[in-house]
Amino acid sequence: MYNIHVKDTLPTGLEYADNAVPAPTSVVGQQILWDFPNKEPYRLSYGESLIIEFDVKVKSEGVHVNFMTVTTNECSGEMIYCSDSAIIDAEKDNDLVADAGGPYIGFVDFPIKFTGSVTGGTPPYSYTWYFDDGMTSNSRNPNHIYTTDGTYLVTFEVTDSLGFSTLDVTNTTIKIDVTPPTVDINKPLAPALYIGIKYYPWFMSTVIIGAINVEITAFDTETQLDHVSFYVDDAIKETISAAGPFIWTWSERSFGRHVLKIVAIDGAGNQNEAKMTVWKFF
Question: Would you say residue 92 has pLDDT above 70?
Answer without folding.
Answer: no
